[in-house]
């Protein structure tokens, strides 16, 4: 599965489905490097008509290892040796509204990488390790149950089930604490997490 110059998509959702399928089948993580919405385009060309389902006039995607490097002015020169994902990978995918304004049209597809593309590396990237919506809801529900348990008086159970009850609460508390840590780590996008990713690539491959 891939893209070809001239491919068209009737909606942004249709394109997103193709994009996700491409990422999973090729083990490549992409990110939206640049975009221009239909509203911005119509500001320049008020008389032009667009299919609202395509949402964007222009889109540019890069490999997670390519694209722009962002430098913080506040820490300029203070942390010169910090590593990031960016290694100037040349992969580029560009789309724009077709002349009729009805579809997103692929105008450029440079399927070239300057690094290894491996399933083991793809699987340990933050985007793949992040909890999905269903898992997040389960974690929230478990945390809520734990909070409710803390509020509930256990006096009537202590005499009869003291040992077992305390052990159960201790195990539950420890398990929920682990969930909190995992949610934090999987949501985290700091430099420490990027360094952890680099260590993980050596461990999983």
UniProtKB/TrEMBL annotation:
Transmembrane spans: none
Segments forming domain ZSWIM3 N-terminal: 4-115
Domain of life: Eukaryota
Protein name: ZSWIM3 N-terminal domain-containing protein
Source organism per UniProt: Littorina saxatilis
Source taxonomy: Eukaryota, Metazoa, Spiralia, Lophotrochozoa, Mollusca
């Amino acid at each position: 599965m891939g893209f070809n110059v001239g491919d068209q998509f009737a909606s942004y959702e249709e394109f997103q489905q193709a994009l996700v399928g491409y990422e999973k089948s090729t083990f490549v993580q992409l990110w939206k490097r640049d975009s221009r919405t239909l509203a911005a385009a119509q500001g320049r060309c008020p008389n032009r008509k667009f299919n609202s389902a395509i949402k964007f006039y222009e889109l540019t995607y890069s490999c997670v290892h390519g694209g722009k490097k962002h430098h913080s002015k506040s820490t300029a020169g203070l942390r010169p040796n910090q590593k990031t994902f960016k290694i100037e990978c040349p992969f580029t995918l560009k789309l724009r509204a077709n002349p009729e304004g009805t579809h997103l049209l692929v105008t450029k597809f440079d399927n070239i990488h300057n690094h290894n593309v491996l399933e083991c590396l793809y699987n340990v990237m933050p985007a793949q390790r992040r909890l999905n919506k269903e898992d997040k809801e389960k974690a929230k529900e478990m945390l809520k149950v734990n909070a409710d348990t803390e509020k509930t008086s256990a006096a009537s159970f202590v005499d009869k089930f003291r040992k077992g009850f305390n052990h159960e609460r201790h195990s539950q508390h420890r398990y929920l604490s682990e969930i909190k840590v995992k949610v934090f780590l999987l949501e985290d996008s700091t430099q420490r997490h990027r360094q952890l990713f680099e260590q993980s690539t050596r461990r999983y491959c």
